[in-house]
Structures are given as structure tokens and as C-alpha cells.
Write a structure and sequence with these properties.
heterodimer, A: about 160 residues, alpha+beta, Ubiquitin-like (UB roll), DNA polymerase, domain 1, 2 domains, five-stranded mixed sheet, B: about 775 residues, Aldehyde Oxidoreductase, domain 4, 3 domains, 20 helices, 28 strands, about 20% strand
């Protein structure tokens, strides 16, 4: 039994300590918004925030996160930047199938919290780990720039 | 039309739990005895019994179970005024759950804010064809869905007129209410629903459709994607997200070679992994694979991770079978040998050999496109439970009726006792039109006494056991006159056919493959021969977004640019000359008997439209009008696919070290009128990225019958940094009263040739083998 702090709540997880955070969230806690894509930190679909840092949940064992704050897509809207990113995603019409977008939003939110006015190169660097097979990249970039251009959205 | 909750709708689907699937108790009893389907299916698209003398059926009429336009099947209105519209096609990113209900809502004069969408389970007798593939949903169902909404609107108007005792002609539906023009009286849809439900559905020929000038949603692009709010909050439900009480989690070790099977296995160590419940062998299905599971050994556990670890602990030995030698590098040579010898002639005009002999110059080129994998971001995943003689399944499936029928067959049940719920699909691209993964879940649920079992494919499973895009060698020859104008054209296309997945003897491309820009090219060349030598499949071949158009368009559009270069001509002008003057060509005269399943009279190949997209893309891209710096170039390509015309102009930049970037792509699209232009743009932008990805990075290769790529590190796809920086989509206007074209797939085929033509313009280097990868490195 491992105790996790997920979205501000302490949660008991009955799973082996080597269980990746991804599967603990999805299968044990029922938080299915965090997606499985590759299991090897190659696609970014499973991105969560660990103490505010974007982290691939698929290779992060629950034993390594017991003392840390996990934030998932289900709760990122409680953050001002996260909320702005979600809104921009809808306004710009980013999602197609939508499967990767939870991870994209978590990466984009982390980027904008750290760097409110990212350049194209900053966006490439921060978002390069998140694959979108539908090819929504140009709208992802536009949505990030939209948030960056909004007064007060990231400050 | 009083709403009610459909008791057969189960909670874990991605519908809201309080959603309504179908109306309507009063109509159901009113019609009892009229129809074999409980009074619900009034208007099936074609008579059940077809006579031999019937003319060929095209388009939606030719699809299994045709179409349905009955408002009682698709529309329910609650007394609170909530309108529920059923979407019977699968959502995989193309926006069909927004677009299709939008059509109904528009004709219904419904306020979109008060519309909810319910996803139909697999039931084609009730809903019409549900195979969400072939870029067909909107083009096949635009008219039936319009009639559906218009019929429901007519019933509401009739109910209001009766309530007020005025002629129906004096009332009009407007934005969720019916208005009596003379008196200004108004009644909302909720207040009219019950009365309307008692009225007969008006016959098809009396239903009056809106004039397109009065559309409020269709063609406007003013509605946001229906599922976007759930998607951005992590609430959207995909096939992999299904959770049921007591559910078990399975992963399967499948034969690594197509046609292989388990020789022996030892589950002892797997069973020691904490959380592993059981190890179950799934019987293999000898080729042809069809839609059957490949078989193998399943590990069933309390969570996915335990199942994955359990699978790692299995001791497995395989009998690899007849494809154990499959080696894609060697197979390339086999295909090349075939491509250099005459093969089955599939189109022949004039005298190719004679014209070649007399040509001023002869050119030849061979193009290679490897196997590809869809790698949908959501791998295949499905959940099944069996209880009380009923089976219920949830999955990310493009073909829910096929899933239903195949599950029933495998379990020895009646299809009526199997319900297939369609979740959102985290990408489809043709992979999820095969229900093999859903049948696996059914087999495993049965093995667990009916307990709910979710099967999740890992990314490795997805790459190792897919239904792959074919591999091909395209051999082209041309003879040109003294001015460089082609007088003779030979195209030999050699590729294992998708039919091989159903009939292992099949060695030639089917009409539907040849009709994807191999034989149906409208070029003005007097002597032309197209051949299709044999090719044998050694893996599961399946549909992949835009299918055989990928290799055919790559070869044909690259070769045209090669001929232009040899003639010292502008590639765009040369292409337009080959297309020739604007004319409407009966595809049958090109040897294309398939025509994407559409009526050749309604859908001729219109070279005027083809010219227009080329001209539009070129103009918008500033073709020939801007001075590009060294290392930059533009390339153009056009493809007529899924009865839609798409031209692309790609601008490529190659630096001194051979690094490729794509600053800009201009895409011109003529798909007829656009129901949801905003999503059409999105589809074309996405298809462009997929085209760039397969052109630059993607390849499935085989050694000893096994796929060599395990995950996204080996099967690379384009990421944000390498995606075109700017993708501009130019939509040509269309007429809502004219036939529509497809949208989901047609954006892919022109991208790879336009890119390679741009690279040639930038560097003088001609790419004939995909993927490009490091071929540009200095």
C-alpha cells in the first residue's frame, strides 16, 4: 500500500511499489484522463505534474512519488494557467481525436507557468515530447501563443 | 416525442449517464405490428430483397444496410425541450459527432445549445451503415440526416398547427420553437414533443428541406467541437478508459510472425506475479487473418501493470509458420524484379511499345514506399462482459456491426444478444475498422466466466501485430517527344493487396486499390499502359488512411515532376498540361470500375476541378512569384481521391548539412460544399502532418518474419518541431445540392510527392524511396 497525494487528496493505492504512476491513476484510482501511449516516455500522452514539473507517469513508479504532489488533467483546470490553456484549446479547436491532448495540455501548462512568453523554439523544446498522430501541432502552437498573448492569463 | 432513458444503454459508455438513446413510447406502440423492428425502422434505404435485374447500387445505397433517415431512430425530444440526436458513425477525430448531429439540428431548427448527442451502438439494421471508413460519413449521410431533421421539424409544426387550430402552412419552426406567423403565438419544442410524437412521420417526398441560404450551422463553422470540453478536462471516454465493477485487465502475447502459433508455453512464473489471476491461451486463427484475433497467450490480472509484468514472465515458444523468412529488405528486391517485367495489364490505350520505340527520349523511375503502421495514439483496447446470455462490449471501433457479428460468431451467440458500444476513438486511420481486438476481449471474458475483461494493446503490440499499410514498388516509364511532351506512359504497380488478408491466394491489387490514382489518372497521353504484376503478402495488410493512394500518388506525381524537369518546364504548368482541358471523364473509360463506390454519372472525374485546385494552391503559395533563397524550393502535387480534389504546394528548406524544414504548405481542396468547414480545415492540416510524417520518417521493416520496430523510438513520427510551420488550407466553394466528396483521407496523398518535388527544387536531389530520413544528409 502506497499513499499518494493526487490532486490535493491523499489516496491509498493498493499496488506493487514498482507500478507506474500511470496505471495507479488509471486502474486503481479511476483517473482515466491520463493516457497510455507508449509506456516508455516517448509520446507524452501520460504527462502529469509532479510538484509542478511535467513528468511522464508511464515510467514513474509510485514508490518514487509518495512524498510529492501529483496533479492530473482532471484537476489542472483549478490552476489559472491550466484553465486558460483548456479554454484556448477549445477556442482554437485544437483537438481532433483528443487522446493525446491531456498530455499536451499538461506540457503546455507547465511551459506557460515557467515561461509566460515562450518563443517558437521554446514551444518546440517543451512540446517535442508530446506526439499527436492527428497532427494538431499548428493549432497547439497557436493555442499556446494565444494564452501567452492574453493579459493576466499567465502572470 | 417524450424522452426516455434507454434501459439498454449502459453507464460506462461515453454518453452522459442521463442520456436518452431513443424516443418514444407512444410511437412504438402506435406502430407495433407495422414493422418487424418494433415500429422503429420506417424507412430503410433500399428494399430488403434485391432483384437480379436491379441496377448497380452506388454510394450509400451500395453499403451494407444502406441508410436510414427516420427521425424516430435519430431524434428524441424531451418535455424540457432537450433534443437528443443519435450519431451512428464513430468519432475518431474527424468531428463526426459534431458534424452529423449538426445537419439534423439545422434542418430541425434546433438550438445547438439545447442539443445533446448520443452515440449509437452497433446496429446497422436500425441506423444504416456504420462502417466509419472510406471518407464516407458526411458524403453518404448528409441527405438522409437532412431529411431526418426536416421530418421531425414538420411533425413539430403539425403539432403546433393542430394545437392552435390553424393550417400547417401558417406556422414555422424557428430556433427551437414553432411560431404562428399571423398571431405571433409561439410554442417551444418541449411543449410540442408529446403531440408531435403521436403524428405520423411524413413521407420522404413531402418533407421540405431548407434552402441552403437559411442554414444556421451547416457550412458556417460556428460550432465548437462537441467533445472538446470533455477532452480538455480528461473526461472524454475512449476504448481504453472503460471501467466496470469487478473488471479484470488483460494483455496478450501474440505470435510475432503472421500465421504463427503457440508451440508451447509455461505460465508458472507469470502466475507468481502479484495481481495476475489467470493465463489463458487464445486459439490462433490460421491465415487468412480476416478480422480474427491472431491468437496467443493472455495474462489476466487485477490491473494493467500486473498483466504486463505477467506477460514478461511467460515462457513462450512459437511455431512461426510459413512467413518466418519474411525480410522486407529482400522483399524490396522481389518487388523490384516483378516491377521490371510485364504483368497483368489493367489499362491499355494506344500502343505504348510502339510509341516508346519512336520516342525522342525515354525516362524511367522506380519508387519504393515501405509498410506503414497507423500507431493511433490510443492503441486498440476493448472491454467485454457476458451475463445472462447477453454479451456487452465497449471499444474504440470503426465498424461496430462487424464487431457485433464477429463476437457473436466467436461466442456462438446470436448477434441480437451482443451489444457493441462505441466509445470515442483515440485515432482510427483504418486500424480500428478491424474488430480483432474486441473479439479477444470477448474470448477472454468467456474464459473468465463472463467477468468483464479489458484487453489493452501496448504500443509494442500495436507495432508488432497491426494490419499494415502495404509495401510497394512503383515502376514508371515514359517516352517523350522532342519538346519533352509525354507520348507514352507505363506504370507498373506492385504491392500485396488488402484482399490477401481475406484470401491468401490474392496477388493482384483489387479494383478499389487500382482505382486509387493508379489507373484513374486523367492525363492527356495517347499511349498508356498500366500493369499490375503479382505480389504475395507475408503480413496482415489493411486499410491505412488514404490506402493505395499513398504509393500511387507518390509515384505518379513525382514522375510527372521528373518529366517536367527533363523537359526543362515549370512543374505546375507541365502538370496542368498533362491534366489537359477541363472535361468530365467517365471513370469507366479509364478502366476504373470502382470510382470509390460512387455513381460514375454523379461523380465523373472532373479535370476542371482538378485544374482549379492546382491553380489555387499555386496562386496562394505565390508559385513562381517569389524569389526563394538558396536551399529552398516549392513542389506541387495533386490527387483525386475519395471523390475529392486536393492539390498541395509544399515549400521545403534544406540546409548545408541536409536538415529539412518545411516552412509552409498551401493546400487547395475541392470536396464540394463543406458541412463543417472548420473541421475540414482541421482534417486537411492533420492529413498534411501525417503525409509529412510518412514521407520523412515512417517505416515498418521485417526480419525473420518479425516487425523490427518496437515503439515510437524506432517507429518515429513527426513531432511539433518538424511539422510544417504553417499549413494554409484553401477551401473551394461548393453547392449543397451537388454531391459531396470525402474529407478524412484525401489530404494525405499529395503531401509526400509535393514535398519530394519541393526538395528536388531546393537541392536537385530526387527522392524515390520513402522515408526520406537521412537521404538528404551531406
Amino acid at each position: 500500500m502506497v499513499t499518494l497525494n493526487v490532486n490535493g487528496k491523499a489516496q491509498q493505492v493498493d499496488a506493487a511499489p514498482d507500478t507506474p504512476l500511470l496505471w495507479a491513476l488509471r486502474d486503481v484510482l479511476g483517473l482515466t484522463g491520463t493516457k497510455f501511449g507508449c509506456g516508455m516516455a516517448l509520446c507524452g500522452a501520460c504527462t502529469v505534474h509532479l510538484d509542478g514539473q511535467p513528468t511522464r507517469a508511464c515510467i514513474t513508479p509510485i514508490s518514487a512519488v509518495a512524498q510529492r504532489k501529483v496533479t492530473t488533467i482532471e484537476a489542472i483546470g483549478a490552476d489559472r494557467v491550466g484553465k486558460a490553456v483548456q479554454t484556448a484549446w477549445i477556442e482554437v479547436g485544437v483537438p481532433q481525436c483528443g487522446y493525446c491532448q491531456a498530455g499536451q495540455i499538461m506540457s503546455a501548462t507547465a511551459l506557460l507557468k515557467q515561461n509566460p512568453k515562450p518563443t517558437d523554439a521554446d514551444i518546440d523544446a517543451a512540446m517535442g515530447g508530446n506526439i499527436c498522430r492527428c497532427g494538431t501541432y499548428s493549432r497547439i502552437r497557436a493555442a499556446i501563443q494565444r494564452v501567452a498573448g492574453q493579459k493576466g492569463a499567465t502572470q | 416525442m417524450s424522452a426516455r432513458r434507454d434501459s439498454t444503454t449502459s453507464a460506462p459508455s461515453h454518453m452522459r449517464s442521463d442520456s436518452i438513446l431513443l424516443a418514444n413510447v407512444s410511437r412504438r406502440s402506435f406502430l407495433a405490428g407495422v414493422s418487424a423492428f418494433g415500429g422503429l425502422v420506417l424507412a430503410v434505404g433500399f428494399p430488403a430483397a434485391l432483384r437480379a435485374a436491379d441496377p448497380p447500387k452506388y454510394g450509400r445505397d451500395g453499403m451494407d444496410d444502406g441508410w436510414v433517415d427516420d427521425p424516430l431512430v435519430f431524434v428524441a425530444i424531451g418535455e424540457d425541450g432537450t433534443v437528443t440526436i443519435v450519431c451512428h458513425r464513430s468519432e475518431m477525430g474527424q468531428g463526426v459527432r459534431t458534424g452529423m448531429p449538426m445537419i439534423v439540428a439545422d434542418e430541425l431548427e434546433a438550438d445547438w445549445k439545447r442539443v445533446r448527442v448520443a452515440q449509437a451502438p452497433g446496429d446497422q439494421k436500425r441506423f444504416g451503415n456504420q462502417d466509419t471508413d472510406g471518407s464516407r460519413s458526411t458524403r453518404h449521410f448528409f441527405e438522409p440526416m437532412r431529411r431526418c431533421g426536416a421530418a421531425a421539424r414538420t411533425m413539430l409544426e403539425a403539432a403546433a398547427a393542430a394545437r392552435w387550430g390553424v393550417p400547417a402552412g401558417e406556422v414555422e419552426a424557428q430556433n427551437h420553437e414553432v411560431v404562428h406567423r399571423a398571431s405571433g403565438r409561439r410554442l417551444g419544442y418541449g411543449a410540442l414533443a408529446k403531440d408531435a410524437a403521436k403524428l405520423p412521420v411524413p413521407s420522404r417526398d413531402t418533407v421540405k428541406l431548407k434552402d441552403p441560404s437559411r442554414f444556421r450551422y451547416i457550412g458556417k463553422g460556428n460550432l465548437k467541437l462537441l467533445d472538446a470540453p470533455d477532452i480538455v478536462r480528461g473526461k472524454a471516454q475512449y476504448g481504453i478508459d472503460t471501467r466496470l465493477p469487478g473488471m479484470l485487465y488483460a494483455v496478450v502475447a501474440r505470435p510475432p510472425v503472421y500465421g504463427g502459433k503457440v508451440a508451447k508455453y509455461d505460465a508458472a512464473e507469470a502466475l507468481k506475479v502479484p495481481g495476475v489471476v489467470k493465463v489463458v491461451e487464445i486459439e490462433s486463427s490460421p491465415p487468412p487473418a480476416e478480422f480474427n484475433p491472431l491468437g496467443g497467450v493472455a495474462v489476466i490480472a487485477r490491473n494493467t501493470w500486473a498483466a504486463i509484468k505477467g506477460r514478461q514472465a511467460l515462457k513462450l515458444e512459437w511455431n512461426d509458420g510459413p512467413n518466418r523468412e519474411y525480410d522486407s529488405a529482400a522483399f524490396k528486391g522481389t518487388l523490384e524484379q516483378s516491377a521490371r517485367k510485364p504483368g497483368k495489364v489493367v489499362r491499355n490505350e494506344g500502343d505504348f511499345d510502339g510509341a516508346m520505340a519512336g520516342a525522342a527520349r525515354r525516362l524511367e523511375a522506380e519508387y519504393y514506399i515501405p509498410h506503414l503502421a497507423h500507431v493511433t495514439m490510443e492503441p486498440p483496447a476493448a472491454t467485454v462482459r457476458i451475463a445472462n446470455g447477453k454479451c456487452e462490449a465497449w471499444g474504440c471501433i470503426q465498424s461496430p456491426q462487424a464487431a457485433r457479428d464477429r463476437i457473436a460468431k466467436r461466442l456462438g451467440m446470436q448477434a441480437a444478444d451482443v451489444k457493441v458500444n462505441v466509445t470515442l476513438l483515440g485515432g482510427g486511420f483504418g486500424r480500428k475498422s478491424k474488430p480483432d481486438f474486441m473479439i479477444e476481449a470477448a474470448v477472454l471474458s468467456k474464459a473468465m466466466g463472463g467477468a468483464p475483461v479489458k484487453v489493452t494493446w501496448t504500443r509494442e503490440d500495436d507495432l508488432h501485430n497491426s494490419y499494415y499499410h502495404t509495401v510497394s514498388v512503383e515502376h514508371l516509364e515514359a517516352g517523350v517527344d522532342a519538346q519533352g511532351k509525354p507520348v507514352a506512359w507505363l506504370h507498373r504497380t506492385v504491392a500485396p493487396t488488402i484482399i490477401s488478408t481475406f484470401n491468401p491466394e490474392a496477388k493482384n491489387e483489387a479494383p478499389f486499390e487500382l482505382g486509387m490514382t493508379a489507373i484513374n489518372i486523367p492525363f492527356v497521353i495517347p499511349n498508356l499502359r498500366i500493369e499490375n504484376p503479382d505480389a504475395t503478402a507475408h503480413t496482415r495488410i489493411g486499410w491505412f488512411r488514404s490506402v493505395s493512394n499513398i504509393p500511387h500518388a507518390f509515384a505518379v506525381q513525382s514522375f510527372v515532376a521528373e518529366l517536367a524537369a527533363a523537359a526543362g518546364r515549370d512543374p505546375k504548368d507541365f502538370l496542368l498540361e498533362l491534366i489537359g482541358p477541363a472535361r468530365r471523364i467517365d471513370p469507366r473509360t479509364l478502366g476504373d470500375t470502382w470510382n470509390h463506390g460512387e455513381d460514375p454519372d454523379r461523380y465523373p472525374l472532373d479535370t476542371g476541378r482538378m485544374r482549379r485546385v492546382v491553380e489555387t494552391a499555386a496562386r496562394e503559395a505565390g508559385w513562381g512569384s517569389k524569389a526563394l533563397p538558396k536551399g529552398r524550393g516549392q513542389g506541387v502535387a495533386v490527387a483525386y481521391t475519395f471523390v475529392t480534389y486536393v492539390a498541395a504546394v509544399v515549400e521545403a528548406a534544406v540546409d548545408d548539412k541536409g536538415a529539412l524544414t518545411i516552412p509552409r504548405v498551401d493546400i487547395a481542396v475541392d470536396c464540394g460544399a463543406q458541412v463543417n468547414p472548420e473541421r475540414v480545415r482541421a482534417q486537411l492540416q492533420g492529413a498534411c502532418v501525417m503525409g509529412v510524417s510518412l514521407a520523412t520518417k515512417e517505416e515498418i521493416s521485417y526480419k525473420a518474419g518479425r516487425v523490427e520496430q518496437d515503439n515510437y523510438n524506432a517507429y518515429e513520427i513527426t513531432r511539433i518541431d518538424a511539422a510544417p510551420r504553417e499549413i494554409r488550407v484553401h477551401l473551394l466553394p461548393g453547392d449543397f445540392n451537388a454531391p459531396l466528396g470525402g474529407v478524412g483521407e484525401p489530404g494525405v496523398p499529395p503531401i509526400a510527392p509535393a514535398l519530394c518535388n519541393a526538395i528536388f527544387a531546393a537541392t536537385g536531389k530526387r527522392i524515390r524511396r520513402l522515408p526520406i530520413r537521412d537521404q538528404l544528409k551531406a
